[in-house]
Amino acid sequence: MSGWRAALCVLVVPVCAAAVPLGGKQAVALLDRVAAAAYRQSYSGIYQHQYARSLMTYRLAHASGLGNPLEKRESLDDPPWEVVRDNQSLTVYAPDRQALKAARTGAFQTFPSLFGDNRAEIARHYAVERIGKDRAAGRDCVWWQLTPRDAQRYPRRFCADIRTSLILKSAILTADRQIIDRLSFSELKLGKLGDLGQLQPQYRDGAVWRMPVAAGDRGDGGRGIQIPGLPEGFSLQRDVSRRLLSGQQAVRHLVYSDGVASLSVFIERVPDAVQPTAMQNGAITLRSRKMGDILVTVVGDLPDNAVQSVSHSIILLRP
Fold it and tell me: Secretion signal: which residues (predicted)?
């Protein structure tokens, strides 16, 4: 076993064994099972999200069997905020505007639901293999690795519950196998929620922000923009005009995904004083560039080379 693999076994996968690759149909079947487990089951628990130098803790309650799955995710750190989400919308509640802005770090999380609907596409762009066993929240799970077939995506790992296929842990790694993002349940209860009050927001009378999340909301359908540098396998998931958590002005927001990674493109008019920026925070990369009085910002859980390629290749067509 190579040095990096042995070290990673200690850090992430306590029980390592020879990797077992899956064929395309097997990989899709696995991804279908874990996706269904996160959507169709009811569960509640506490999980941690570690990235860069940050460690955040969240409480999650997810209820199925109500016609439309409903979940509430709340920050257990300061400042407090909470998100209630169903198939149609995502609503952030906080005691005040400052706390509402702080929700940007976790409001869009979907753990333990990590995969989109285009799971056959995932198997075309990632090799899937079983790499070991582990435990989380008192439950046994199996680690699976998604290794990208190009340099424009991160390797990823997830540990799925042996009995239910629900993802209990996940990790995003760099090409040299450094962990830059990890999520893990520390407490988990499976089965029907005993108290549906867990799904009700506490800060209904505070600051509120809502965003539609219905699948297939493609608005302008990507018209007026070309992205030759978009990695293969990424397709448009959403094209909407919306107000960001951080401000009042509506911006155009396009979302692209390969079923695992997501890439957002924001297009907005800005004053001359606004300058483009670049940053890296864990697995998230952000790059922006100005095109006249238009600021185009690209952000996603992709390596810097991929985000930079997308940013530099964007062409805005005149109406």
Answer: 1-19
pLDDT at 1: 44
Look at residue 218 and tell me whether its pLDDT is greater than 70: no
Architecture of domain 3-199: Clam (2.50)
Of 222, 220, 21, 237, the C-alpha closest to 117 is 237
Q: Which residues contact 75 (CB under 8 A, 6 or more apart)?
A: 56, 57, 58, 81, 82, 102, 103, 106
Tracing tokens 């999200």 back to the chain, one arrives at 49
Does residue 309 carry a pLDDT above 60? yes
The encoded tokens of residue 318 equal 């005149």
Q: Are strands 156-161 and 167-173 parallel, antiparallel or unpaired?
A: antiparallel
Q: Beta partners for 102? A: none
List of residues 6+ apart from 187 with CB closer than 8 A: 45, 46, 137
Give 104's DSSP letter: G
Domain boundary assignment for the chain: 3-199, 216-316
User: Which CATH superfamily hosts domain 216-316?
Assistant: MucB/RseB, C-terminal domain (3.30.200.100)
For 168-212, how does the pLDDT look when each residue is reduced to its tens digit (9 = 90+)? 999 999 999 999 999 999 999 999 998 888 999 999 999 999 887
Listed in order, strand segments (DSSP E) in the chain are: 15-21, 43-51, 54-63, 70-75, 82-85, 89-94, 126-136, 139-148, 156-161, 167-173, 179-190, 207-212, 225-226, 235-243, 250-257, 262-269, 278-281, 284-291, 294-300, 315-316
Residues 46-89 have pLDDT tens digits of 999 999 889 999 999 999 977 788 999 999 999 999 999 998 88
Q: Give residue-wise pLDDT tens across range 120-139.
A: 889 999 999 999 999 999 99
Domains 3-199 and 216-316 share a fold: no
Helix/strand/coil for 165: coil
